[in-house]
Amino acid sequence: MARLLLSKATLSAQRRQLAAYRRFLPSLEMKRQQLMVTVKQCQQTIARQQAELQRIRDKVQRDYPMLANDRIDLHSLARVEQVVTRRVNIVGVWVEKIEQVRLACAPISILTRPHWTDGLQALLKQALTLESERRQQQQIADVLQQELVKVTQRVNLFDKVLIPQTLKNIRKIQIYLDDKDREAVITSKIAKSKRQADNTPQSAGPAL
């Protein structure tokens, strides 16, 4: 750590630094608050998506007990073909957000597939789209959470380290300079008194 120079120039530099820290800290704190709110909103969205996925699973189990038969091939009913995303800026953080989930769905033939496959296919399409969106939302939440950690660390650095240390430095320099000023005043008074004493005429001695 560099040695602190106890001078007026250093005092002026420390005061400028303190002013800069205090200007920057509110914007950092605001970003931290925005990130906290956004991360919470992402988590709430993910929770809703998970609840909806569970609802679809429950419906499939309830309405399609025949799926327990392993001989029924349903893999070709629906699958994710492509997930189209675009970069968006959320609270100053660039993330990938889903624009479209493209599904490949097999045509349903009345002659070759059971009558209930159309309803099941619709549920599978919902589930596949929702699961893709949930995964992407989780990725966004993870990126924002990482940024929140970084911003929180910076807020703590300014609030708990840099600003207190700079205030301490300012006090230390100010005390030193005040002591030097007092010392200079006292030295000046002593010198003045000495000069006055030296210039005072000596009284004549008794005549012989």
From TrEMBL:
- Pfam family for this entry, one: ATP-synt_D
Record key words, sorted: Coiled coil, Ion transport, Transport
InterPro entries xrefs: V_ATPase_D
Q: Which residues form a coiled coil?
A: 32-59, 120-154
Q: Which domain of life is it from?
A: Bacteria
UniProt key word Cell membrane: no
Give the UniProt family note. Belongs to the V-ATPase D subunit family.
Q: What name appears for this protein in its UniProt entry?
A: V-type ATP synthase subunit D
